[in-house]
Amino acid sequence: MPQNGSAFDRATAVTRTEGGGIRAELDPAWDVGAGVLNGGYLLGVVARAALLDSPHPHPVALSASYLRATPGGPADLTVTAGPGGRTLAHASVLLSPAGGPSLAVQVTTATLGRDGSDYSVNPVPEVPGPDECVATRTAEGGPAVGLARQIDTRLDPATAGWTVGRPSDTRLLRAWIRLADGRDPDPLALLLFADALPPTAFAVGRPGWAPTVQLQVLVRALPAPGWCLVESRSTEVTGGWSDEECRIWDSAGRLVAQARQLARVAR
Amino acid sequence: MPQNGSAFDRATAVTRTEGGGIRAELDPAWDVGAGVLNGGYLLGVVARAALLDSPHPHPVALSASYLRATPGGPADLTVTAGPGGRTLAHASVLLSPAGGPSLAVQVTTATLGRDGSDYSVNPVPEVPGPDECVATRTAEGGPAVGLARQIDTRLDPATAGWTVGRPSDTRLLRAWIRLADGRDPDPLALLLFADALPPTAFAVGRPGWAPTVQLQVLVRALPAPGWCLVESRSTEVTGGWSDEECRIWDSAGRLVAQARQLARVAR
């Protein structure tokens, strides 16, 4: 599929205004419930804005503060370029929908390659193939939100007990993931995938909101075509705060992204 | 020791100017070589600026882009407050020494507690006591930089082979750490400790610069008095980029901070 024909590319498009600003039409179809847009989808929009004037083609690191919930509709993007050189460039991006700034992001852009790793202790977990996994779109207890129609998510049966009323005692989710329209992954899609699984509290039978406070995503390599495998785990929950650690491997078994977020959780 | 008597508190102090700005006198004694200040020290300064007008007393999440090297001397801090509520508050902080902006940080403040964890898969590693560990201040191959005089670092012998010419094949460092003047840890000191160990490439016998590109630090709990244990590991090195994963436990064995940075490394 040509990338400009993909729903993700259309929904994350940014345009320059006559006044020299940058504008996006945030698509309400990428929500996580109650009209609130998914945080990874928003990072895709922000990265596109940062890339407009960058000398480099790929986002390699995004660190975001989620100031408030972002609704669909028109939004302004303010890009403040930092220093840029041969290796990388920095920018700060502020996303402002109608109600005022909702997302502030530090963006680093560079040129990613397909070279093999020089060092890796991120072996790909053993998970059955996508067809032997649990499609969350139709799972009991699965998310009935816009995002679930945009991405095809297949949960590792070992971490899917919660979908059939048998929660685990471990806050761990693993899933194959791809865009529902078949568009292959790229660094922008990895930003989406880094915040696309349900909160890990679902795995232990505690569904509910877990709004992201800050999220850092590192894109480590260009992903191969096909499914990506996403692993999300919480390692520490205390005082109403949870971390969510995320690793993403491509179809060739290579680590292509890492992320960590701090989220609020029900106490 | 009263905290206002500590070198760290003096070196990270910020003051309001008559014009309403915020200013710091960055202390060249906290350098990592060549007059370049340590990234964790700078986060301490930035957090103090963010706390000035915050309704909350503690930094809980900082995400920073290191735009360029920061030298000692006077620096301006620009704090842009975001939304704040009963639970947390956001701010963006820009640190500008004489040469222009060098550090852009998203800061989230809140109120941290000493409650026990609700969930944790971060058992404290088994490391001999500080007196049985390797003091890097005097170690052959150890860092002969200002920072090494400000903090007392005791490397786990299991990860200290590189200090005596016997590097490991694992990019892992563990060390007890405290401020050299005996000041007890607090959330600000944890920001320092999150970027205080040498690059993990040292462990495999490849000393050299590893400039931080982006760094996220999460402070998860108020630390108990005494030594902290810091573990730093690299999990993926590719194309001249390395991650550095950091966890910090307090003297009671509790996880009190997590961090991840993306750094440039020699190829």
From TrEMBL, chains A, B:
Residues 130-265 form the Acyl-CoA thioesterase-like C-terminal domain. Residues 27-108 form the Acyl-CoA thioesterase-like N-terminal HotDog domain. This is Acyl-CoA thioesterase. It comes from Geodermatophilus nigrescens.
